[in-house]
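User: Sequence recovery, please. Input:
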């Protein structure tokens, strides 16, 4: 499939670019070509890329992902996470192309312990979640007859960029003990699995736009950050003890949801995408990091 991807060096964008060799033609647009903090000007660049590359679908893997910094930079977060996806969705609809938007567990307030259904009430706790939710609404509102999907995921990790796994590896090599939050529970998700999921969804939408909607996709089993950290230390053979702490002992500018569990059943039923085992994904990421330190 020919795919236009917004984002180039991000975790998911990098994994999407890697699928180029697997029968797909993928053109990634980085911020140097389309700066989504200026959505209107960026859409001109996207239009040119659509004309030149002639994709069969568009995937938006670009976002403002700095959750705490979003509290201080609300306007830029809104431009990237709300205005840009809405404009991209309209552009894809005009061009008759399916559109896939990646979103987040942070659209929920994290109450309770049950996994959130795709139609559960949203109530973001911070600017990041609020702007991502506006982006979702813009994508759904474009009502793209060629098909659209919002894929909510959580706790993304990979061998590149900044993420929890890389932070734990660095700190675990420096210290004997780390204090890690144990009362936030969710599904760590390998970026590689999200990239494949986006392509499968784009292919399905191209064949059947009636599958449009909001979907969930996160790694299995659900776990806490502390248990995730412990597994990282075990797999990386780092001698670092993980002490469990409550979120209240680790204050951050943005409040995180305590319950990030996502009910992913419709994603498996509609697209045949089972939740990826994050422990196996972690093993692959560690192998990749060993090969390219
Ligand atoms: P990263 O933070 O790794 O990458 C961000 C991407 O956004 C990069 O490709 C970057 O472009 C692009 N970007 C940032 N600023 C601009 C800009 N001004 N103009 C154009 N592009 C810009 O993101 P992830 O891969 O981790 O996230 C992918 C998706 O998953 C996002 O929608 C995110 O909200 C969602 N998500 C992420 C989670 C996580 O834990 N990281 C959790 C849940 C959902 P460039 O390549 O040019 O640098």
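Assistant: Recovered sequence (293 residues):
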């Amino acid at each position: 499939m020919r795919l236009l991807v917004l984002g180039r060096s991000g975790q998911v964008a990098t994994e999407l670019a890697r699928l180029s060799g697997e029968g797909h033609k993928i053109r990634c647009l980085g911020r140097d070509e389309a700066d989504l903090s200026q959505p209107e000007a960026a859409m001109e660049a996207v239009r040119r890329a659509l004309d030149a590359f002639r994709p069969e679908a568009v995937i938006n893997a670009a976002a403002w992902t700095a959750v705490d910094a979003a509290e201080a930079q609300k306007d830029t977060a809104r431009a990237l996470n709300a205005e840009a996806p809405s404009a991209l969705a309209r552009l894809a609809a005009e061009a008759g192309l399916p559109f896939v938007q990646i979103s987040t567990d942070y659209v929920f307030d994290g109450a309770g312990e049950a996994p959130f259904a795709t139609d559960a009430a949203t109530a973001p706790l911070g600017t990041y979640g609020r702007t991502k939710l506006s982006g979702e609404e813009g994508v759904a509102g474009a009502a793209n007859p060629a098909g659209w999907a919002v894929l909510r995921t959580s706790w993304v990790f990979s061998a590149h960029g900044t993420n929890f796994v890389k932070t734990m590896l660095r700190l675990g090599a420096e210290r004997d003990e780390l204090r890690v939050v144990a009362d936030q529970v969710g599904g760590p998700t390998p970026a590689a699995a999200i990239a494949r999921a986006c392509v499968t969804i784009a292919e399905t939408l191209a064949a059947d736009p009636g599958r449009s909607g909001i979907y969930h996709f996160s790694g299995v089993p659900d776990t806490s950050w502390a248990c995730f950290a412990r597994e990282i230390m075990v797999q990386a053979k780092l001698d670092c003890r993980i002490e469990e702490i409550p979120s209240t002992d680790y204050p951050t500018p943005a409040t995180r949801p305590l319950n990030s569990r996502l009910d992913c059943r419709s994603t498996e039923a509609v697209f045949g995408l089972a939740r990826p085992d994050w422990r196996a994904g972690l093993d692959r990421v560690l192998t990749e990091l060993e090969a390219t330190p």
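The domain at 2-163+189-218+262-276 is CATH 3.40.50.720 (Rossmann fold).
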